[in-house]
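Kindly inspect both lines:
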Amino acid sequence: MSSSEPLVIELKFGEGELKSLIKAPSVQIDGELLTVAFDEKSVVVADLGQGVARGMLAEMFLKMELHLRYYVLEAIALSMISTLRAVALHGASIAWNGTGVLLCGESGAGKTTLAYACARSGWSYVSDDASYLLLEGEHARVVGNCHQIRFRDASAGLFTELSGRENTPRVAGKPSIEVGTNELPGIRQADFTDIRFILFLNRSGELAPGLHAIARDQVKNYFKKFLLVPAPHGSPTDEALERLLGAQMFEMRYTDLDSAVQLLSETIEGSKCRIR
């Protein structure tokens, strides 16, 4: 499928209701076929390789906005995008004077919190923990939703501007506070950035702060475990990951946000920073 061709989602809605309101559908991946099934009559099948999804859903889904958005529209659209157009990366993206940084780590590592702390200090904000590495191009270019940030509840205790905000309704996933960046004064946004640094966050405080070398294979395996479809050697996905792995890669150990932002800024500017 050409990158210029649009991705297609065709849904039909029929009369009837689900036998039982299942909180989450059954999701199966067989090769490049993704099937989302709520019951035998409400099923959507996406051909990830062709970028086409078709299905039939009970009419009641038209009144179930969160279910339709989260389990069907977003899930299928992002699955097709992350197969045909980009590589889905579990990392937050920010940029300083045109130099892109990808903040990585397992859930709860502090990716979004640090990305926002940097944005408050003059960095450009690209995305929270959902970044997409474009398959085409010569650079390791990532895009994201720079118009929204999703915070954990605990972030309200770190940033006074989040105080009093309630969690955004979601049908699944961890509770989060979703905020438009246009509601946050002084936040510079960027639709994309070329990644030059990949940093895995470690804020345990048990080890000396600074940047520490990390194995290339460890980084590659981290990204590959989030792939929906395997990436054979030489495939567009594999080539995009190889471009990404041309970035400088470190584990970043820190104890507080202020020192982390300073360390990041010094690293980008080539100033004194501890690299072991």
In short: Helices lie at 65-84, 111-120, 216-224, 236-244, 257-269. The domain at 88-269 is CATH 3.40.50.300 (Rossmann fold).
